[in-house]
Structures
1.
Amino acid sequence: MILQQLPTDLAQLLSLNQRSLYAFIRGQVRTREDADDVYQETTVVLVEQYNPAEPPGNFFAWACGIAWRKVLVEYRNRSRLKLLANEELGRILAEKVAASVAWVSPRIDRLQECIASLKTESRDIIEGFYFREESVTQIAARLGVSEPCVYKTLTKIRRTLLDCIERKLREDD
Amino acid sequence: MSLSQLDRERIDQLLTALYDGRLDEAESARLLDWLEEPEAQDLFASHAMLDAFLSMACADPQGIAPLKPAVQGSVDAQPAEKGGPDDRATSPVPGFLGNLTQLGGSSMPTLWTLLVLISGMVPTLALVIVLAIRGIRVEVNQPELAGSSEQGARSKRPQTADTKTPPRLADAPHRDAKSSGAASSPASAPARLVYAKDCTGTASRPAPGLARPCPSGRR
């Protein structure tokens, strides 16, 4: 699908929300391939259902809702479904994730800076888990540590990064 | 109910396991209980958000250079054949020549060309000497040829020589030049993989491992 062939306003909305929408999906699925598939399917639905006469009030929230349902389909046979089978809870979580994504999306540069400030070991774990898509088991085996150790380390790194982002935002203000 | 720091850590680890696709039923049920709390829901959201942006930050083409061959010439991307350019890595000669070129300021192809020319001239010169000696012996041992048809004898000499020398012997150094001499040219330098850059754009290094083991405990 070529963006230029879409209605101008939809093309603009998709372009504006592309990164945030992808981030929303990426936070729910484990691999880039899955995220790409869900994103593509979501975009198709958005194009099909978009009505220029009655555009959604909040395009991003609408798009996230569609993406969320695609994620659920993606994970129908996986353990995550049991957690998200509670529709009401699923809706709440989706809304919160969408709000978080919308909030942090313009600040991703800060995250890059914070990643850069991590120690080499921490960065290696983060890159292994998120970029090379290694499982916790694989990382633990590679580093010769226990899995709980990797879990704890990831938690610490994540907290460090969030603190770093907040600190940098305060500095900006 | 406010979550304690321990609770938050526990939830965070459960969410990591969830993202990793390793959450079992019991853990899933426990997490579901937690997520009744708005605070835990916020944790879930921030966790998912950070998962997303870390994945994207690390995969961002602006931050990560894909694995690619080090480009030093136009044909660098071509895989090196066995016995070809890559083999020079095990040979002491290129290193030696490399040192020479550094000292002399000359380029590797020039030195290689010189070496090939010299190595090619040696058998050629030997061949000429052998032919000359054999020619003298023919003239000495077969005077009738010289006497009957000097021109014919002369015309036979090269043929005799040709049958005793490998055909196109002089080509051999040139073939060598292709497999060894040309190997040093920048255009045929081997394709070498470089480390992918990390999220920060710097080349990543092999993991040194954790300096100390974490205290044991369930995640």
2.
Amino acid sequence: MEEGERLRASLRELRALLLDAPDAALGATLETAEIQRMRLQAWLGGPVYLGFAALDAVMYPERFVEFLAMRSLLGVACIAVLSLGRDRSRLRAIRLFVHLSSLGAIGVLSLMCALTEGFASPYVTGHLLVMTAVVAFDSQRPREMATFLLFAVASFAGLNFALHPDASTEDVTAGMFFTAGGALISFGTGLMIQLQRARLYKATAELAQRNDDLRRASEHQGEFLRTVSHELRTPLATIAGYAELLAADQGVSDASKKHIERIDRSTEGLLRIINDILDLSKIEAGRLELVIEPFDPRELVEEIAEETRVMLGRKSDAVEVRVCVAPIESMRSDRVRVRQVLLNLAHNATKFTREGHIELALEHDARGLAFVVADTGLGIAPDDRDAIFRAFTQTRAGVDAGGTGLGLSIVRRLLQLLEGEVELESEVGVGTKFRVRLPLDRGAQT
Amino acid sequence: MSDDNDPVDVLIVDDDEAYADLTRERMALAGLRAEVQLGPFGAVNTIRRLRPRVVLLDVNMPAIRGEQVLDLLHARALEDSPRVIFLSSMDGRSLAKLAKQHGAHGWLSKSATRVQIVSAVRQAIDAS
């Protein structure tokens, strides 16, 4: 019972695949491919028919004119297919024309067979078999294919019986055997080809659907990002702005000024987190666009040093910011994103360094250009060194210092886009050194 | 709203009232006379009426976006066209691109500090 049910299910699936899939799943790409295939056949058909015309002259010189008329008819059909154009909207018309001309060619070949040697003609019977096989393999549906093959057998038998009523049994048997046998083999092989084609169409349609879903999801994500960006950033900017106005007010007490400073710092922290999340989402969605341009890396290091001093705030008395730059005047990369990478590293250094120094350097060695951000902070234990580059993952010290654990993850992702890499050296209690290697010329965006 | 004859340095076009008021106060602290147009509707008429030297124009506004307001302004071809600066929460790179595409004088992030905004406005006034 189970076997029977499985067989019935397989047949149902097969039927659905053969009868429904080709029409339902024939997408734009496959329709274009279909037209290209038919046009290629038409291009190849012309020379082949000309070649056969020469053979006709040798085999049946007395019937050469009729054969030539038949070849010309097929040649005209080829030209018509080519001239119908590449437009997908004409696919149905092209297909109908090809089918009609195929039926015409089968009919004419049957007639030629009847006009020459009847059932006994191996030359024309062979042609007929080849033509039958071609139209069978070319069909999109089993019904279409069966129509061609039945027509081939019927026209062959009908015309030959009509014109050779006195044909010998051997000739009729042999002719019918080859024609019907050829039609059956064509049918079986054509069915297998159609099955493969239907599976391919179905898989392609599913992929196209999935692709479409992903594209829509990506668009929704982009829209969500824009909304979040606007809806969160504007009120935060308003809070920060009013805090700034309050701080500038001469009448505010020292205690209130401290409160305002905290509001300001918290707002800045929140804005940084929002920006980090948005950046990471953009990178993951492949929506981050690079702008590659030449810039002076030494200036960039100086800028980061300035920002680092500001970020240190009250700690700047205990932590010295050192700068050491190699004489590299220009590089080509995305300045904004390189700056973001270095600022993230510098921000981490300010969080974890209580005393000593933070060094910002620009190096040039045999492996190329490197920016270095080194500190005399807490250091990172060997076990944590991989984890810190994962999104939303932090060390214990990182959790204590606050943040989301996105900074280094963004650094790594951005460096992948910039065709760079980050190296980490660290010793717990001594300090950490991040070396950011970048190509001198990132090249055009890929 | 001010008397029509008073010169207005800056017109702030923004649908977010709190941020628009903040910007006006920032301008006032810097000695600049600013007016607020809440939202994009009627912005072009207000610009024609007040003839400000600089317009701080929000981008993400309902129904009509800032760049559409700017296009409308360009289409009117006013005699003393003000310098238009996009002021938005969009990311800087997109905002810069938008400003370039629509011929804005400049752009500013809404998270810019008072000093940065005032300095940009003063530069635009000097250039006008």
